[in-house]
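Before a colleague's protein record goes any further, I have to sign it off. Would you go through it and say whether the fold makes sense for this chain? Take the sequence as given and treat only the tokens as open to question. The record follows directly below this note.
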Amino acid sequence: MTRRLPWALFGVWVLMAATASTLQLLGDDRFDGGLAPGFVVLATVGALIAARRPGNPVGWILLALALFVTGSIDADGVYKSFENDASPPGAVRLLAWFSEWVIYVWFGLVGILLPLLFPDGRLPSRRWRPLLWVGAGVVGVSIAGTAFGSGGISWGNGGSIPNPLGIGGPVGDALSAVASVSNAAYAAVVLCALAAPALRLRRATGVERQQLKWFALAISLLIVGLASAAIGEVTGFQALGNVGWSLFIGSLVLGVPLAIAVAILRHRLLDVDVVINRTLVYGALTATLALAYLASVLVLQLVLAPLTADSSLAIAASTLAVAALFRPARARIQALVDRRFYRHRYDAARTLEAFGGRLRDELDLEALALDLRGVVDQTMQPAHVSLWLRRTS
């Protein structure tokens, strides 16, 4: 029964996603209409892990996240058609009420529970239990304050409608005030929870270390996307904001569940170092070339402004300059990443390079054999090194 339940919940999610997509497309919202089916990876990975590892809560967390998010999109698709109604029906108000507080459930699942319990479903140690209880309390207070303390619910274009389940009075005001404080405390709890996988990574070895690397890669992309989106919003740089939100949503919908699936199901687990290396190199390379392109366009436009009012010449010249910069910049960044994050590999490459230089000039066979054993010991670090040379007759 336990192994069938995840797939039954997955079937429920499929019906909810189909309903959400239909409602949003009928409301001419293509983004949300495509967003609900986009959580298929999250729901599938959650069901798969929950079915194969029913004792590990990580799969159940992913499946619950897919259900709650899709349920929110369903609710939004229903009440959106009533937003011009100043007094919507009671059932529509309940759906709007649900959408107000369910976001805290998402945050609690992905921001607190998942970092604390990944990858084996257990806390790093008993000392983390207080943080788990504090996190649950913060989420619970935020939900209670938003669901029952608020007197109104956001409605339409800047308007509001009465909260159908609002308590009101001093109790409601107290709930709202506590919820406001808990919203600020939530950020601190999430940061502490994210320290759990970082601490595990420092102490882990073997398979667990590789699992945590996959998770760290996905969460890093998620944080970079969110930070880029926030910077774009604050500075008014719309392009950066769009890229940031795309990276954030892509990491949430695809990156995190796929990384967790690879880590827990251990399919091609050992390839993570190559993925991280390429992500660091090409991420830094993209940012470098983008900044170089923008700076080049601005400088050339200032230089060429007295000669021509057309900016196409500056754009063409900048494109050619960035294309010429690609290979040397990639090599420089690759060397920097290897030196900073893959020091053992970098030192091994330098050792082999130096040995190749000595090999061209060394004539003494005994000295060469001794040097070769030293290089193997330094780069491969085996328990024992022996060299056999076949004598020619």
